[in-house]
């Protein structure tokens, strides 16, 4: 992308002139990749985190709940739940209040699941990184695929017997949940708000820096030192079992999307098929053990296993589909 | 001076605890009239539901929701508390 070409020049200058590393060597490739990708990602994050702060201000979770509660949706609510999951950032420590709040407002449990599934799979930072690193076409595929997994997963999980699988404490608590309330007093738009958003976005970006460095660092190592056709030879890239393998490898690696995407890009650059790499990335962010431990407080092990099962199968199907499309 | 009741409400997560620590130091700056309570786990959940909130942590001042989410800025938290008195 041409708007990033000054960054490439800077990376070239630093690698070849300042560090005077032999151009074309493995080390040069790695260092160049690290500087260029690291700077590009941080810049993109700064922009997106500012935008996210604005979205969070105008569209808090509570507003989405009230919106979903306020109409009859005839099934469209699954798509809405999943899409809102994609655009609304929320921390996993809010999973339980979110769950209880949605149930309390009478939102179907399937819609709640649609939201919970898509929320970690897609987020704004990931979308921006995708556009920057893979281009629009792959990004569109990623977004549509993530939303679809949420919708279908929600439809399947929505068929469970709530009373049997959700803890009775939680059901009791959801009855007392208030909603449709004006819980926030919005201040009128002012310059103060702009600086609040800026500092919020900056704080978030700073928090992500270690993830970016680790992700880009690993990505740079793969990019420079793993031979271009390594995976094509050893993994026989088209083999059917590579996609499930990528998912299984990814589950214990709980990480932030921002850290996985540079690794994903590096894997693609050394011959891992796009779909396999996407399945790896989605499984890393979407199937997390810490999240499972939190959700276990709310639901039965059986439902939790179904939740993970449905998402796993969804990710594997998406991986295959992308591999076939972009063969 | 009238007392200021400050609640930090959360599910017991790490950010909730951090917010509690910061709020305590802000309350100490404001003076003895500022009183901080910390609700977590079941109690925190119940309070969140009562308030109609779905995100944790929350900062509540004299029963009014002053902030949802987390901020590390003591200045901002102080301003939010004083605004909502």
Q: Could you characterize what this model shows?
A:
- The complex is a heterodimer of chains A (327) and B (85).
- Chain A has 327 residues and is mainly alpha-helical.
- Chain A has helices at 5-18, 26-58, 61-70, 76-87, 95-104, 109-121, 124-134, 136-157, 162-165, 168-175, 191-225, 230-234, 242-250, 257-269, 274-286, 289-295, 301-325.
- Helix content of chain A is 75%, strand content 0%.
- In chain A, helix 7 runs antiparallel to helix 8 (136-157) and helix 7 packs parallel to helix 14.
- In chain B, a hairpin with a 2-residue loop joins strand 3 (58-61) and strand 4 (64-68).
- Chain B has one domain (4-83): Glutaredoxin (3-Layer(aba) Sandwich).
- Helix content of chain B is 45%, strand content 25%.
- Chain B has 85 residues and is α+β, with helices and mostly antiparallel strands.
- Chain B is globular and about 30 Å long.
- Classes of the chains: A mainly alpha (327), B alpha+beta (85).
- Chain A binds chain B through residues 56, 60-62, 65, 90-91, 93-94, 96-98, 100-102, 104, 169, 173-174, 176-181, 183-185, 196, 199-200, 203, and chain B through 10-11, 13-16, 42, 45-46, 48-56, 64-65, 68-69, 71-73, 76.
Shape of chain A: globular
Q: Number of DSSP strands of chain A?
A: 0
CATH class of chain B: Alpha Beta
Distance between the termini of chain A: 23 Å
Portion of residues in helices of chain B?
A: 40-55%
What is the number of beta strands of chain B?
4
SS-based class of chain A: mainly alpha
Quote the average pLDDT of chain A.
84
Name the average pLDDT of chain B.
86
Biggest interface between chains: A-B, 32 and 26 residues
Q: Which regions of chain B contain 5 or more consecutive residues with pLDDT less than 50?
A: none
Order of strands, widest sheet of chain B: 2-1-3-4
Residue share in β-strands of chain B: 15-25%
Helix and strand content put the structural class of chain B at alpha+beta
Enumerate how many helices of chain A there are, as a single number: 17
- Large-scale geometry of chain B: globular
In the CATH hierarchy, what is the superfamily of chain B? Glutaredoxin
Radius of gyration of chain A: 21 Å
């Amino acid at each position: 992308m041409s708007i990033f070409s000054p960054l490439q020049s800077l990376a070239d200058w630093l690698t070849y002139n300042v560090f005077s590393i032999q151009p074309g060597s493995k080390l040069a490739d790695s260092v160049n990749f690290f500087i260029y990708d690291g700077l590009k990602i941080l810049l993109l994050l700064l922009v997106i985190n500012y935008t996210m702060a604005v979205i969070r201000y105008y569209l808090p979770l509570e507003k989405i709940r009230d919106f979903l509660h306020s109409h009859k949706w005839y099934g469209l609510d699954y798509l809405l739940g999943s899409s809102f999951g994609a655009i609304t950032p929320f921390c996993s420590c809010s999973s339980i209040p979110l769950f209880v709040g949605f149930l309390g407002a009478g939102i179907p449990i399937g819609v709640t699941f649609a939201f919970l599934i898509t929320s970690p799979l897609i987020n704004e930072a990931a979308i921006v990184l995708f556009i920057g690193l893979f281009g629009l076409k792959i990004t569109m595929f990623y977004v549509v695929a993530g939303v679809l997994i949420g919708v279908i997963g929600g439809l399947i999980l929505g068929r469970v017997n709530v009373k049997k699988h959700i803890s009775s404490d939680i059901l009791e608590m959801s009855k007392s949940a208030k909603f449709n309330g004006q819980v926030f007093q919005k201040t009128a738009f002012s310059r103060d708000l702009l600086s609040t958003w800026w500092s919020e976005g900056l704080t978030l970006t700073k928090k992500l820096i270690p993830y970016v460095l680790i992700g880009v660092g690993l990505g740079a190592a793969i990019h420079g030192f793993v031979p271009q056709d390594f995976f094509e030879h050893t993994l026989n890239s088209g083999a059917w079992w590579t996609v499930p393998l990528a998912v299984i490898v990814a589950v214990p690696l709980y990480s932030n999307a921002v850290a996985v995407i540079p690794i994903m890009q590096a894997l693609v650059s050394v011959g891992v098929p796009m779909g396999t790499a996407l399945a790896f990335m989605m499984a890393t962010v979407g199937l997390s053990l810490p999240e499972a431990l939190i959700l276990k407080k709310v639901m039965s092990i059986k439902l939790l296993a179904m939740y993970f099962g449905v998402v796993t199968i969804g990710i594997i199907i998406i991986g295959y589909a992308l591999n076939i499309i972009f063969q | 001076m009238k007392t200021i009741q400050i609640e930090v409400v959360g599910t017991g997560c790490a950010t909730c605890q951090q917010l509690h620590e910061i709020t305590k130091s802000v309350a100490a700056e404001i003076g003895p009239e500022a009183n901080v309570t910390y609700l977590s786990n079941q109690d925190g959940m119940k309070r969140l539901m009562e308030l109609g909130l779905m995100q944790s942590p929350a900062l509540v001042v004299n029963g009014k929701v002053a902030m949802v989410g987390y901020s590390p800025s003591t200045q901002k938290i102080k301003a939010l508390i004083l605004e909502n008195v």
